[in-house]
Amino acid sequence: MTDIKLKKMDNAIWVMEPHDTMKVPAYIFANDNLIGRMQKDRTLQQLKNVASLEGIINHASVMPDGHEGYGFPIGGVAAFDAETGLVSPGGVGYDINCTDGDTKVLLRHGSYIKIKEMENRLNENNAQFVDLQGHSIKEADIVYFMKRLEKAHIYEIKTRTGKKLRVTGDHPIYTKEGMKKAAEVTSTDNVAICGFSGVPYAFPSEEIVVDENKIRDALGSKKKSLGGNCITQVLNNLRKRGLATIKYTNPQLPYLAKVLGFVLGDGSISFLNGKKGVVWFYGKEDDLEKIREDIEKIGFTPSKVYKRTRNHAILTHYKEYKFVHVECSFKVSSSSFASLLVALGAPSGLKTSQAYVVPNWVFNAPLWIKRLFLAAFFGAEMSAPATLNRYNFYAPTLGMNKLESFEINAIDFLTQIKRLLAEFEVNTSPVQKVEGYRMRGKRGTTCGYRIQILPNPKNIVRFFKRVSFEYNNEKFRRACLGINYIRLKQKIKKLRSKTREQAITLYSTGHSPTEICTMLCSKYTPEQFLRHSMWTKFENKPRIAFNFMSFIEYCEKSALGPNGLAWDEIEEIKKIEFNDFVYDITIANDNHNFIANGVVVSNCGVRLLRTDLTEAQVRPKIKELCDALFKNVPSGVGSEGKIKISHEELDQAVVHGIDWALEKGYGRKEDKERTEEYGRMDGAKPDAVTPTAKKRGKSQFGTLGAGNHFLEIQVVDKIMNPEAAKAFGLYEGQITVMIHCGSRGYGHQICTDTIPPLLELAQKQNLWLPDKELVYAPIKAPEAQKYLDGMQCAVNYAFINRHVIAHWTRETFDQVFGKPTSEKMDLLYDVAHNIAKYEYHNVDNKRRKLIVHRKGATRAFPAGREELPPIYRSIGQPVLIPGSMGTSSYVLVGRPKGLDVSWGSTCHGAGRAMSRRDAIRSNDGKALTKELWEKNQIYVRATEPKVVAEEAPNAYKNVDDVVDSVAQAGISDIVAKLRPIGVVKG
């Protein structure tokens, strides 16, 4: 709650006098019913911050529907000089959605880094993300780092498997319903998680791993087979690739560490008969393709993958095994590549008949490089994760076969592997000789040794989550899922153990078995378990419940995609106080997500159509009409439009605005005259828009979206200003259609892509910010101009979006009521909500060009302004105020006083009073839909009940109070009240 002092200046106008850092006063437009709500959150503190910005002109203001946002309060208005002022994305409606600083971001090569440590280290790292189409894990460059100060609260989310994430309320998290803001996630949601966490990233040293002398030494014994000049050629080839001298900092070393580990298992190197060195790789086709990709990153060209059917006969200690399988393999025919691997420590020739060890450079490498070496070796050689009795995992086993003459070397090598695993706190068995591994072959008899990962649950989880497997996707997948499964199983075992102790204690204090069973019985602690607990002395802790799902059942139920992702249930969500920096990153990929603590985390306006239909004509067909609109106008989070265009066509569209749509046959010419800015802002430059934004935008033309966006059938319920109503073509009983939507993912992505450069500029120029959320740039800075170029593209996109939806709405009315109907469906007006615009205003009795920021506010110019279309210039600008679902909407008109106190601006809607998450908790969507129909005869057609719950009337302020406030303040007049009879929502 803020202690900021306000003074009542006029009817429904309050003033915050300049104090502390404020440069100008701040006006609050609110009647007595609304002012108290603004004093309970950060709305007024944010308004104070806006009034503290350098170069702000005259005053800042917030509308009665205003509430807490990021930087600017939603409903905020501010103006700056067009030549010397600034531009702030927060002032046109953009949020930086962040995590707390200790969040671990999963990087390429299976390491992680705390997000707060990335600020000056972007070039070192590449994040892992989830391809949301196939749910595979991939990697992409981190292109931007962002941070801001959060002084209020964040959300802490815990899952059943123990994942914990702390994020701001607007940070998207990937759920079964798609990306959902953290504040909207509920205990019924399932979120996507990755069990693997890796190890901390550490910057490698400049120490040399291998140089030309080591390469010469490694190949010295092979001069005869390689030929006299081969070593010189090898070194020349390696020099060209930057591989003749390799340091730990070399970007190719991580790939070489993996390849080396795999070659020690399922690879071979040979130098024969003076021919080129050849390296062979054997495995599953998909896994081999991943190795091929990495070899290309090292700088060499692999062959294609070969397939052949092979018959095998292996004579073991027990019996002879015969089998047939399709062998997949590929080779790299390069003496340089083979020589480099030998210099790094790989044996050439038959591995069972020679001694080799873990290379010393591996022991001196950072932990994450050691992991790559081990995980690739285990991908080739270690047993796959599997359960022996539905529930408990076998001990992962690593075996090694050597000719008996090299027995000591086998023991030494496995001992070195044990030593490496100990660095990951993974406990292993002693090296054990296994008679069953003994085999007789052409070169003699081999002996076999093995080590095992000790099979206690904590140890196996440590191994799976810190080391795991590389170059064997199925093993990695099972390990990731195994982590989750073991944690769920241990949670149930802990529950059973605690319940057993409670039962014993209650029994010892005189409670009857029946009473105890009544109190403690549950799915995993049934009556039989409780009675045995009371009557039998157990030395060991309880085993898992017989009815707990098996590992296979868990995989079938929860696995997501091919790479080990899984759905996890939310166990707890809580809002916690927070006063520290929060952080975010942007990756160079259209999916725009990353894996944080193992969890996958990732501009609007209104148009009003009037008809010549009455409520009596429409009400009998209201269900048919809404159902048809729901079908004909795509809506919802992932909706795609019916207009299919290329990136080039999209660029043309956002430059020309509504003119583009008119040329394509959408809408009418007179619609352009009744759209703010005539449906096109000058200055839109598609070159400022990234391919990512274009990809999101080109599929969403003509889509309603979700959240508070809607298409509503309304009745003109009451006329309050007959003169303006007549000019606007409104009369009581008339049917209107209100369309509320914006620039969809296109506009959001434009902001996402342009915010980071503004943050970097603020840091470089040491710009003073009253709040880190209020990032801005001087208007003449290239970063600011690029932002404006992109924002204008988004504004024009939104104009087109509403225009084509109106076109399909007219077609739908013809479909339901007969073809001539649409001919009399005229556009009353189309206004924008979130926008920064160049406008001329009087400042100190002089006409001055300003850039006016309106965030969740509407332009409301009075009569006489040249920006207004001729048909409305004598009466004033129509202003469209959508109410909450099930409540009235309003048409207003601008008043002259607004130019003096709000830069010709007014409210834009009812204004949220409850978060979407709280609304979902407080409302039953199905029940509300039924109630709206039975009590109010309002038919709601939505994608799902949750959408109805989060947009329930009680989630918003009283729209009557909101419009009453702007009317009392004299910044706009009420023209007409509109009552809903049908609602279509995404």
Key traits:
Endonuclease I-creI, 30 helices, alpha+beta, 4 domains, 34% helix, eight-stranded mixed β-sheet, Endonuclease - Pi-scei, Chain A, domain 1
Helix content: 25-40%
The CATH architecture assignment of the largest domain turns out to be Alpha-Beta Complex
Number of domains: 4
Shape: globular
Structure description:
The protein is globular and about 105 Å long. Helices cover 34% and strands 27% of the residues. Helix 5 packs across helix 8, helix 6 (253-266) packs parallel to helix 10 and helix 18 crosses helix 25. It has 30 helices and 45 strands. It folds into 4 domains: 99-195 and 595-600, Endonuclease - Pi-scei, Chain A, domain 1; 208-471, Endonuclease I-creI; 476-559, no CATH class; 604-913 and 956-985, tRNA-splicing ligase RtcB, CATH 3.90.1860. The strands form 12 sheets. Strands 33, 34, 35, 37, 41, 42, 44 and 45 form an 8-stranded mixed sheet that branches. Strands 1-2-3-4-5-39-38 form a 7-stranded mixed sheet, sandwiched between helices. The longest helix has 36 residues, at 473-508. By secondary structure, it is an alpha+beta fold. A hairpin with a 4-residue loop joins strand 28 and strand 29.
